[in-house]
Request: fold
Amino acid sequence: NDPTTLFTSSGMQPLISYLLGEPHPSGNRLVDVQNCFRAVDIEEVGDNRHTTFFRMLGNWSLGDYFKSEEIPWFWEFLTKELRLPKEKLYITVFKGYENIGYDTEAEKIWKEVLTNEGLENKIFADDTNWWSRSGTPDKMPGGEPGGPDTEVYFKFDDIEHSDKCDGDDPTKCECGKFLEIANSVFMQYIKTEDGFKELPNKNVDFGAGVERLLAAAQNQSDIFQTSLFKPIIEAIEEVTGRPYKDNQREFRIIADHLRASVYLLDAKVIPSNKERGYILRRLIRRAVDNLGETNPSQLESVIQAIVEE
Ligand code: SER
Reply:
């Protein structure tokens, strides 16, 4: 019943009332997989990493564990469970805003984790390390919960930085060499007319997009070439008779938009001229516009590849 949005676009959205303090029927430690759709990213799709639809893995503490447990678990999940190479992981923490200071607590815990692993300090601070439904602290309306976050980036060696990027600092990278693969939001504040106040609970909101984790696990800097998207791209090559390497942008748009459409249809959204239905219609139209000469009636095998994913 969230009137602020047409779609669920993050893990925290369906849990807002519990983050605000209402007891959750399943307790104060949760895990989930949330289907997410970000209409705001439609125009971004076409590069190596943006998708409108993705699945977010989450773990949640509703006033239970906090930074000192969460950060070592975050690292353990990435390096032990997923076996990501630790030298490719980079960390960012919140730089501070008004009465909420630089997150020295998260930084200290990360330093301990890295030192125990024999790694040098790879922690950077940024003022965009913050999560709320409306973005950074200045953009939040009154009554909105939010908090600082810590983010982990994966470094792809095969991508060359653009001129605007700066070495090993993921906060100064725009080219996709550094990919944010997961974050933990320390959801502990609410914005009021008199500035930020503490929520009744200090919560943790861990979120990790399955598609991006897979790109890191497969060390594949092009999400559309991971084992999840490859069969979809191959089906598009087959029906169009054209190779992916010469049509990357178009094929990524087709793959992402049709995949998102399949999931929206599955969620009972019907193409129309308003609200959710309008967005679905736009996705389908953009996918078809990128097909070139190919007749959309030939897309069945592409849809099949998405359904079988
Ligand atoms: N951790 C979430 C995200 O990144 C917020 O719920 O979307």
In short: The chain has eight helices and eight strands.
